[in-house]
Amino acid sequence: MFESRGVDVVALSVDAPEINRRHRQKLGFTYTFLSDPKAEVIRRYDLLHAHAGPKGSDIARPAEFLIDPTGTIRWVNLTENIAVRARPEEVLKVFDEMERAAAR
Known about the structure:
31% of the residues lie in helices and 22% in strands. The protein has helices spanning 17-27, 40-44, 88-103, and strands at residues 10-13, 32-35, 48-49, 59-60, 63-67, 73-78. The protein has a two-stranded parallel sheet.
């Protein structure tokens, strides 16, 4: 679905690489998981959800970004609810609209 459009999907979390690997395997995800245990990148994108994790730990806010090949952020979907995410169809609709606009 994403690959056919040239979209790379990457997950970023504060979890250690081993936890991300287990989570990815357990849920059958095939995309890349990146670990940011010090939340350096997470803070750079203003995604830190302080004390919202287990035992009051810091976690990343749920978010989806479309970033073009130059590194420019073209679309962002942020939420405060860890259970709420954009559906893949929503993200691809925005991506397709951006592609059409760029082709004009």
